[in-house]
């Protein structure tokens, strides 16, 4: 049976499941994500009211007449519009442009009617259904167009591309005709998470959304990349006009490239309430100076239409992120070579060393410069942390302060270290620490290697600490247990930290260790 997957038609076995087709085609898909299932093209197009006619001179947009009188003509259009593709402009006058001919089963009439600029008519030239033409009116006129006995032959109106229409001549042609999918036309698009769903003839399946990036917004584009975890993004909010992705909300970003927010536009809120939130638009919205454009959906807009709150979408960037942190020098060199970028090493040159800094930081800047400088450390010097699920606010604070919210390697700076005290305390941020309510407080004792944060119960809220021995009285920041939030455990060798001095930067990463 014939189906479509990600826009490509293919023949699959009867009773094939979504999982079967994904495996057979090797379609991009991240487990845990939804897929979009459409019953078929005609099911989708029954709700569509706008079409874009592309020519070599530009595009014309028409909107269908939804009246009962025009319905027989609209049905003919929806069933046969693709027959006008690749046809020439048959004639062009001061009042009209004609495209055709095609063959229909319509019957002509001989009445004369008044027509107005923008009317779109099906005309049976020479009173023959084998010479059916599409007539687009450039001006008001009275004429005999041999139209069918329905609504004077009018089935649509020109609502966009008048300049293109005026410029067309009989030397031009139609390159494509595309239904314009809007949020209001997606009633038959559904999200599916059960990959054992059996497909039927004519089904359309979309497994991923791809996007291109706006090269004028390097900082905010990196914010978009940071939201992609294991090849997917989680929908935080759904409305008729957009999907919201709020995992990195509150992170301040500069105002960069501002454009119209059209369907498929991706923006980051750079000012006002909701700064740091990312939006993908289902419908056109007015331009806002508070939104920086970071990209546009290239494929898989159907997934954006189908997705609901708390669902995951598989995403794929046309230009991948050049994030080198937490990679070995050798891995980075291979990655950069494939991108045509020169890898320059500052300091430790060991192939197995772990990269902790890169300059430039942002993908777009790296591509523009054609080179990147990396700094690496020995793997044993990278402090890895297994975060707890019982202190979400405190863990987010730590990731925000260190940079782990957006990067795979972060930095914390030693604030206090005294040999023999068996404790090291790192700098905090009093402003960001204002919301650190008590959570996951120690009960009987603090275990060696636990990492903790001082909460709002103390004037020193926000400080971060590690103890190098068990303690039954005080937490990792030397505070009482009620002023201490435990955020996790160090999973790497950390004894060397006790000997470091104030002001030294320690590089941290989230542990992959599940124990």
Automatic annotation (TrEMBL):
InterPro entries: DUF8179, Methan_mark_3. Residues 385-510 form the Putative peptidyl-prolyl cis-trans isomerase domain. Belongs to the UPF0288 family. This is UPF0288 protein EDC42_0903.
């Amino acid at each position: 049976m014939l189906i479509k997957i990600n826009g490509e038609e293919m023949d699959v076995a009867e009773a094939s499941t979504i999982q079967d087709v994904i495996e057979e085609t090797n379609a991009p898909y991240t487990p845990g994500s939804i897929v979009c299932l459409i019953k078929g093209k005609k099911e989708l197009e029954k709700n569509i009211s706008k079409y874009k006619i592309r020519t070599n001179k530009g595009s014309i947009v028409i909107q269908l007449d939804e009246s009962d009188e025009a319905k027989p003509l609209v049905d003919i259009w929806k069933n046969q519009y693709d027959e006008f593709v690749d046809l020439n402009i048959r004639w062009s006058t001061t009042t009209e442009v004609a495209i055709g001919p095609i063959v229909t089963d319509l019957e002509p009439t001989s009445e004369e009617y008044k027509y107005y600029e923008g009317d779109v008519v099906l005309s049976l030239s020479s009173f023959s259904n084998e010479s059916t033409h599409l007539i687009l009116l450039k001006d008001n006129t009275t004429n005999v167009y041999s139209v069918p006995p329905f609504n004077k032959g009018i089935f649509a109106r020109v609502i966009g591309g008048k300049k293109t229409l005026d410029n067309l001549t009989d030397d031009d042609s139609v390159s494509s005709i595309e239904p314009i999918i809007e949020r209001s036309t997606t009633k038959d698009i559904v999200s599916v998470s059960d990959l054992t769903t059996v497909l039927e003839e004519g089904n359309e399946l979309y497994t991923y959304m791809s996007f291109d990036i706006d090269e004028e917004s390097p900082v905010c584009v990196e914010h978009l990349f940071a939201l992609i975890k294991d090849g997917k993004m989680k929908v935080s909010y759904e409305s008729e006009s957009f999907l919201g992705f709020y995992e990195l909300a509150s992170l301040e970003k500069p105002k960069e490239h501002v454009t119209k927010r059209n369907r498929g536009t991706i923006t980051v809120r750079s000012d006002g309430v909701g700064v740091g939130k990312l939006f993908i638009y289902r419908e056109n919205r007015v331009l806002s100076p508070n939104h920086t454009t970071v990209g546009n959906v290239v494929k898989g807009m159907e997934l954006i239409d189908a997705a609901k709150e708390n669902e995951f979408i598989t995403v794929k960037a046309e230009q991948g992120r050049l994030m080198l942190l937490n990679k070995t020098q050798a891995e980075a060199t291979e990655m950069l070579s494939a991108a045509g970028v020169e890898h320059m090493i500052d300091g430790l040159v060991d192939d197995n060393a772990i990269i902790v800094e890169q300059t430039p930081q942002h993908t777009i800047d790296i591509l523009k410069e054609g080179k990147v400088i990396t700094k690496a450390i020995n793997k044993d010097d990278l402090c890895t942390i297994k975060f707890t699920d019982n202190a979400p606010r405190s863990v987010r604070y730590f990731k925000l302060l260190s940079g782990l919210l957006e990067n795979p390697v972060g930095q914390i700076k030693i604030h206090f270290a005294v040999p023999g005290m068996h404790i090291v305390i790192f700098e905090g941020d009093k402003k960001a620490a204002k919301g650190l309510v008590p959570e996951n407080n120690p009960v009987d004792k603090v275990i060696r290697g636990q990492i903790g944060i001082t909460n709002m119960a103390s004037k020193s809220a926000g400080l971060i600490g590690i103890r190098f021995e068990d303690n039954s009285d005080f937490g990792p920041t030397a505070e009482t247990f009620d002023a201490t939030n435990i955020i996790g455990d160090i999973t790497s060798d950390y004894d060397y930290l006790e000997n470091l001095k104030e002001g030294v930067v320690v590089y941290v990463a989230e542990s992959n260790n599940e124990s």
